[in-house]
Amino acid sequence: MTNPSFAGACADLTISGVPTSKLAPAGEVQLPKVSFIVRNWNYARYIGVTIDSIRAQDYPNFEAIVIDNASSDDSRDIIERHVDDDPRFLIIHSEVNLGPLGGGLLGLEHATGDFVAFIDSDDTLLSNFASAHIQVHLASRRNVAFTSSSAMETGPNGAMLNGRRTRSDTRCDETTDGLRPAEVVPRLRSIDNDTYAVLARHTRLLQPVSMKWPWSPGTSNVYRRFMLDMLTPNCDPSDLPKLATDGHYNRLAHLLGGSAVIDLPLSTYRIHGDNFAASTPSLASMGGDAGPATKFHMLRVREMVRVFVANAPDFSIQIGQKRYWNALGALFELGGLKSAADRVAWNRDDFFSSQIQHLTVSFGERKTLRRLSEIVPSDLLREGVSSLHGANFPRRIRQELMLSSARRLHARIKSAIRKSRHRRSAGSY
């Protein structure tokens, strides 16, 4: 006898127009669960409508975990009232303000979904947010680590300021069309043929290479849960409130598994002057990131490097050593390597030296120094090695350091040639 709950879950999926309940044993093909993790701190004036927008999703299989970060306003009462008795919601009150990333990690401890979206409590979702993202994940020409949709910018009262938050553009050679033909993929019941065609036209896959910031803010992203588990931060707890979920996960997840951009507005980004990342509307010629988060850029980059280096044995196998070292170089470049102040910041508290030590364990000292000499300045490399060996370097290390400047020059020449080829190929489109 067929379990009614399994049959209902299967009925939400079709392949070539045939319900999967007729194609597979009961319970074998079900919609994935989406976990919405809402982080709130003193946003009583907005959190209610955020919760309402989650409850209004047309996607049937989701849970929502609301983390209140020790709010001192009326947030608790507002949250309780808007959640009501909805069994899909779990409310957790933290006794301390864990910040956006810390609250997200607490939510992850309780999340059971296959996909995760971190929701800021001053933003809202359109009712088709989850269904559009999951449809793209299920129909993508290449499986990706996360999807990112466009976000409409609104003011404090919900009035629209921009139809899309400005993002960096990507080159033609970095993107491909996103979705497979509609008749050969699992289809959600809420995604009809016309809607699928619109998704297909406006979804682009991004190659797993370094790029500026082609994604939308945190609320707009839907991650595969296992990717988040692979990239868990390991910083001092006191630094967690300074970090953000998208700032930590997006680049790392993209460099490992690639991403997809859905160029359709599926959520709102509310600008009210107290935002953590952006306090003004974004303009193509000046951007809008001017919030407190900008002060913690170097801390965020160092934490991404820490995670990427700590997982070097696994990541270098999963994506290959060439891609691994290219990605690590991109993270170092993101943190800045040009000025003396940059290099001081990299090795504050012997951070860079400890990364060399971890990489040496994974790849051996000779290969580590050879690779690092191609992506970091020779004086930073020498300082890092010096803290490990003291003034009396072993002879083999001294030789590697003598060659580091030449290797870095060679790497810069190769990079210039590669960029020149990209410009020429982009100009041919």
Task: Describe, in plain words, how this protein is organized in 3D.
Strands 3, 4, 5, 6, 7, 8, 9, 10, 12, 13 and 14 form an 11-stranded mixed sheet that branches. Strands 2-1-11 form a 3-stranded antiparallel sheet. It has helices spanning 4-11, 44-55, 75-83, 99-110, 129-139, 193-201, 225-230, 245-257, 297-310, 312-319, 321-335, 340-346, 351-363, 365-372, 378-389, 395-427; strands spanning 13-15, 18-19, 34-40, 62-69, 89-94, 115-120, 124-125, 146-154, 160-162, 175-177, 186-188, 203-206, 221-224, 259-270. It has 16 helices and 14 strands. Helix 9 runs parallel beside helix 13 (351-363), helix 13 (351-363) packs across helix 14 (365-372) and helix 14 packs across helix 16 (395-427).
